[in-house]
Please model this.
Amino acid sequence: MHDILKSAGEGRGQSVLVEGTAGMGRTRFLRSVMDAAEEHGLHLLTARARAAEQGVGYSLAQQLMAGARTLLAGDAFGALGGRDPDGPDPATGQGLPQALAPVLATGTPLLLAIDDLQWADTPSLRCLGYFMARLENTPVAVVATVALGETPGDEVMAEVLSAFRHRVLLRGLSAADTARLAAEAFGRAPAQPFVDACRTATGGSPYLLEALFREMRLHGLRPGITADRVRELAPVEVADTLLPRYERAYPGAGTVLEAVAVLDGSATGATVARLTGLDGLRAADLVEVLVRAGALTGQGSVIRFAQPLVRTAVLARIPPSRRDALHARAARLLQESGAPAEEVASQLLCVRSRSGLHWMCAVLCAAAGEVIQRGDADRARAYLRRGLEECEGLCQGKLLHALGQIELAADPAAAVEHLRRALGLRPDIPGRVDIRLCIAHALQLLGRPAEAERVLLEGIGEARSVRERSAEMLRAERCLLRELNLAVDVDMDADTAGTAASLPLDAAATPGDRHTRLSLAALRSSRRGEQRDLAVRRARQALQEEHPTLDWRIATRTVPLQVLSQADELDLALAECQALLDRAGAEGSRTLLAMAHGMRAEVRYRTGDITGCLRDARTALAPGQTSPAGHWSRTGQAVAALVASLLETGELRQANRLLREFGLDAGVPDAASFAALLFHRGRLRAACGYLEAGLADLMECGRRLTAAGQLNPSVMSWRSEAALIHAALGDRGTALLLVDEELGRARQWGGRRAIGRALRVSGLLAKGRTGETALREAVEVLEASSARLDLARSLTDLGIVLRKASRLGEAREHLRRAQSLTEQCGATMLAQTVRQELLAAGARPRRLTEVGIDALTPTERRVALMAVAKLTNREIAMKMFVTQRTVELHLSRVYRKLSVPGRSGLTDHFAELPGGTGTRAGHPADGRRPGAGIGAQDCADDMAAV
Model:
């Protein structure tokens, strides 16, 4: 624009048309041009057309002439032959050019700035066209603004617009400009997510942005609000400004805009016409002009607002009673036209009054099913709750049943409430059986197993007289929950054995019944420590059953994974955990997500992935994942995994603090899932120096498991851990009895991890060659398993025994392997022990790590960086003044430490280190983790209350 104004000032006439949709900042742009006029020696003549004066002849010309008077002496107007310049000749339409002739004759550089040209009167347009045709070689610039899509379609306007030499199209503000406006409005720089949300809502329109910020200040909101909250804001002033404007230009446009706002994503040409009552062609014409004006978009067949903020403003402007009626009418129109249930339900959600439509509940229920498939449980819940306001009796019972199933995904306590109400409204046995199953699973999740069993027992009695198969299904579910809760007595064990022995099932069995019986058989074998291969096979079969609904067997979905984990099928268990997490995420089930994360935390701990275990356990316990009604039955699993991992990283204070936060530093619930917590709390107390307290926890854990017939040491190796403490307290006899029993049961089960753990403790308790032999066998057994951390422990203990026997070379070999494994696992506490033993064995380790990027020597790091920079081995050798063979040796060590096949794998490791210096974020230079090395003395204060 500066170049254009400069050219005009030099005597080369210019004309610029500034175009933009309503609110896009045309007037603001014109003012900036006017401010620059003086810089280029241009005198201003300004005018602004108004819609109300569009029928008044020469209204625009009069404004320009008023400005011209200030440039000429009074007698100059006498040269016009005595004609009043305020009244150009309406017959010829040439009054304006003649009146301006004296101004042009003076050679005075001019800028004619005209705003909102689309509303100019026709006589003034003719005069302007006459004048613009003679701009050549005059020191005059004409700059006018026009609103897109709002110009009348007459020939005079078209001729004038086509005469402009330059055109400027204004678009939405950039993110940087939006952020600047927000900073000016609120006095501080906004965050990028807020800026993005504002641009999305307003399309970058300066007017809409300012209106949005005014609305926020009105409600006391600051730029930290979420994108959803931005979308909810509805500055009615926007609709008050734009609707009359469009209605004046195109009668009926306001009604169309209201219809599109009500229909939202369901607005098509046909539905808009039907809702407004307009003729189809007339509605299409109005939609077309509103699209050209930038108010609407017509992508495909769906009509939407170009700026979402305008829709919320238009909707808020409609009186509530009329808006309610429009939504109800839109719902009927969409239902009659065969629209998807979700589109109809979205309209019904907006109807506040009872509609009495007989088809409403069916549509809402169908819509809930559709959104559940997308994982939007909150939306499905809203649909069903709206349906409950309309129906009663059996229909209400069906909706309550569906709502209870959905609530299982987020709030089991609410699910129980809805399902109990549904049970009182459903007379049919199949429906009641399904409801009872859902109630039992919800109560199980809430840690109320006795109530869950009572619900199932009532159902068994109710169904036995009518449907024997339903009664058997409930009986199998009861057996599985009792097995899961470690509440198995002699009679129940016989019942469980009979149910589990009924496999294989006939073809008429449902997927749920098959899942229950297969899981029961697998879990029973695992509990008794018998037939490991059969347990694994049954668990695999259970995982193959189809999951038809969101709530499907939710409390027992992880049972097959639990069995696989206890059977040392850890890689398969991890893969199935990931599949369950994917399913839970797709379904939007917070309950299942928490359970799956808790289960994967346990599996990862067994594999030795301490970092992954910490991450999963914390996710499972994050706010929003746990029930507000108290401990879930799976909370103990996640807390136990987190305590165990913190113990491995040496963060003992944090582990004790965690127990206090969950109220688990004193009494522990009787639920089965809290047995693991007792086990790891006992280990924690022992690590803090409280051996008697630790032993008490371990023995209580053993008492609970033994009382329930839980004999498998792969579930919890409490005997070997208790044996170590007994030995430390001087009771070697009891220690040997405990570890011998555990080793025997571990061999009977056949799980390598359990055998290896028992052999390790047996080796520690034995003396001389016997102990060394046991430790070597433990290493050999664990080598064939995925339990890396347990292998590292056995290697460490074997290395210590060999060092004490003065076999230092062999000791260092085992200790170096242990160090590598502990680094991979993230077991900081054990890594420190290994390092001390290496030093005692005569090794001189330069760093704590033997793997990973921190394990590289400075020379290896330099070679790796040059390799990433695409230098050949020969070029690297020349730069370092070494032989090519030396470079090859350095690179081979780099590949081994980083576990990469060659040069192609180096880029990922060095992407964060452009300069090749420093250490990675969160990892100190010596490789030690924050908080590592906290010992018993550091825990004294934390354990004082125990």
